[in-house]
Input
Amino acid sequence: MVMIIGVIVLIAVNIILLSIFNRRYISYYRPGRIAISLIAPFQKASTSSIRFVRDIWRHYFFVVNVAKENDNYQKALNKAFENNIQLKEFKLSNSRLRNLLNFEKTITNRVLSAEVIGKDPSPWFKTVLIDKGKNDGVESGMAVVVPKGIAGQVTDVSANYSKVLLIIDHNSAVDALVQNDRARGIIKGGMAEQCLFKYVLRKHDIEIGDIVVSSGLDGVFPKGLAVGYVSAVIKPKSGIFQEVTVTPYVDFEKLEEVLIVLNPKKKEFEPEQ
Amino acid sequence: MTHCLHIFICLCLIVIQTTVMPYIPLFERFYDLLTPFIIYLSIFRSVRESMVVIFIFGFFMDIISGGPFGLYLTAYVWLFIGVRRAITFLHVGDSLLLPFVVAAGVLMENLIFIGTSAMFEQSSRISEAVVSTIIVQVLWALFTGPLFLMFFNYSHRRWDRWSKEIFVKKN
Output
């Protein structure tokens, strides 16, 4: 009897503690930083060795020229893809706004490249560790992108390493809009590497294949970055929202290098005298 | 000395799990490699020896994972308690039962993860992908779990013998 009560009390205490930690996200305080600093170098060494061996195989033993050509084409394709999305977005925003408001887009974000050194140990959560941290100017909350689109957001930073929450994690949220229709919603992580485009009003005619881009309204991701394309639309007979599934452009299985969008330095105004 | 071995094994398992396994197509949905180690500790090692490892590496896993802090610690502690309790009335040392013990451990860990997600997220639902991931993990555990346990047991015996030899030589 005493044992059963003890187990029940233990379970209750456990649930309460988990609930507290779940609501108030624990950042990398000192023991956490030590833990990450202990594990990350081994992860980095392991990842580098694997990539080194794989690169040797790809580039020197296994049809050298084809692999190199393929790399170049892949880079060119990524660049063209990125340019295409950006041009489309620029064209649309130009025709709608620039002529009317006479404003000039001057935002040029500085980016920092980083390497993925480890993935989340659990299949239920989608985070990666990267090899850039506070010493490189990375801060919590910064956007992480790749040429194909948005990858995630920095959630924790230690001296030399950071943890990135990917957009396919169920805790992630990105303010986005459909490129053609301008329907707004929130991109949330779903299952099987797909995202859910939530809170999209039923009145919008969204079609499969439509491109979803970041709206820039969340203050994290710059406007116009590609998120993915619409892969499924369900319009329920009742309710005010429709269920939209978005397939991200980024292949998270093959994520190796990322770019961190460094926030521009805030101008400090001199106090009036 | 024993703690050094445990820490080394756990570190290797974490590094393999987070850097090697995700890039091998067949092992994308492999179970948590620390689970068989926790089961090994609860069956073959003392509570005092095991708890240190469970707390240190539960904490480490919580730090590198995107889940709520304490989730891995919770899963490992309850897994340890559960297996410890099970061996009082089951002959778990019997190698025929080992695959089922590891499979049950993996299932229990997954249920704790999903239960926690469901508890804190109102919109979460159990989809086909969730069920298939659990089934794949349990099947992996059923076939490969005992191999891990045997490897841990073998390396521990070798380590004990080696450390004894060093101790005798010194004296």
